Amino acid sequence: MPDIYRLVGPILRRVDTEKAHGFALAALRHGVVRRVFSQVADPATLRSVVWDRVFSNPIGLAAGFDKNAEVFEAALEMGFGFVEVGGVTPKPQPGNPKPRLFRLNVDRAVINRMGFNNDGLDAVASRLRARDKTAGLVGVNLGKNKESVDAAADYSALAGELAPAADFLVINVSSPNTPGLRALQSIEPLLEIIHAARSARDMAVATNPPPLLLKISPDLESSEVNDIAKVALDEKLDGVIVSNTTLARPQSLNAPEKVEAGGLSGAPLFEPSTRLLRRMYELTNGSIPLVGVGGVGSGADAYAKIRAGASLVQLYTALVFEGPAILSRIKRDLTALLERDGYASIADAVGADHRANSSN
User: Fold this and answer.
1) Could you please report the per-residue DSSP string of 96-162?
2) Residue 175 catalytic?
3) CB under 8 Å, gap of 24 or more: what pairs does 151-155 form?
4) Are 277 and 292 in contact (CB under 8 A)?
5) Is the bond leading into 58 cis (omega within 30 degrees of zero)?
6) Angle in degrees, CA 2, 294, 110, rounded to 5
7) Positive or negative, the Cα torsion across 183, 185, 191, 195?
8) pLDDT digits (tens, 9 = 90+) for 325-351
9) Which residue among 48, 156, 175, 273 is the active-site one?
10) Would you put residue 225 in left (φ > 0), alpha (ψ -120 to 50) or beta?
11) Residues 6+ away with beta carbon under 8 Å from 259
């Protein structure tokens, strides 16, 4: 696979970050990436079955890249095992004032304060209903409108309308860029949202409805993590995505953009998000599929997430710095690591660190 991004990447990184993202979306819409980055079939080692759905490989494109469900088919053709579009809100909204997206080049990180900018439920649902479901697995990240006073009603409306068109649904109450959103991770409002979304989903799709997942913040206190794990178990959630962006600013950051407000993603998030993933796996006894996201930039990173308890892995920020060719490198290196350690499949490696620790 030619890595043309090594030539165009430095040019894009001189452009305003949000404009560069727009160029990437345009390239995908017009088939540029499809023509340049041809894909080969994934090895059987990377195949996995989660929620009775077959994933050709465990590497997904995280929410935030394709907010409006415009390029998910092109992303699947790039070689992603699944794509999560959104976050989607019931009504269209412009998001926060620009500039609101910042590269921290020396830290291989991004800070965003986008604020759920998106075309709204009707537009996204229309695009998803028109998709070819045989082309790959597509989930939807659900959010509330900034001005909404009834969060449960927002998530209910989204789940009911999008369930027939989605392979999974994600309740996002962990973005740091919508005022008051993270407070919805507290038990009472979280239960209300889960119940409302599940009820609407089940009314829309009575047989084999799409799995309902929860995406959590990496900034939760220990007691809050315990509470969410209990909710996940008690409510029989289908999965938990660990984690969203962080408001923390590690002392290791060097880029001048580190002072910007918003959620930090990329390499500095890898360690804290993986610790949280490991803790969530322990608290749920490995009984709930987890999706590991945060700082994945190599096959070794993906493998670490899997060994910590992730059945699936997502990335986004690494694309900013490495371009589309990173995906084939991650899959190649992940395959080699599985073979090195004698695992015949992804499923065999999920939670391997916990088994190793318990045997010591």
Assistant:
1) SPSP-EEEEGGGTEEEE---S-B--HHHHHHHHHTS-GGG-EEEEEE---TT-S-HHHHHHHHHHHH
2) yes
3) 151/184, 151/189, 151/192, 151/193, 152/189, 152/192, 152/193, 152/195, 152/196, 152/197, 153/196, 154/89, 154/90, 155/193, 155/196, 155/197, 155/200
4) yes
5) no
6) 75
7) positive
8) 999 999 999 999 999 999 999 999 999
9) 175
10) alpha
11) none
> Exposed, middle or buried by CB within 10 Å (0-12, 13-18, 19+), for 12?
middle
Going by C-alpha positions, the residue among 77, 3, 102, 80 that lies closest to residue 296 is: 80
Distances (CA, A) of 329 to 39, 261, 295, 311: 12, 32, 15, 19
Dump pLDDT digits (tens) for 13-27: 678 899 999 989 998
Which of left, alpha, beta for 109 (phi over 0: left; psi -120 to 50: alpha)? Answer: beta
Q: What is the pTM of this model?
A: 0.96
Query: How do the residues of the chain divide into helix, strand and coil, expressed in percent and rounded to 5?
Result: 45, 15, 35
Distance CA 347, CA 48 (A): 7
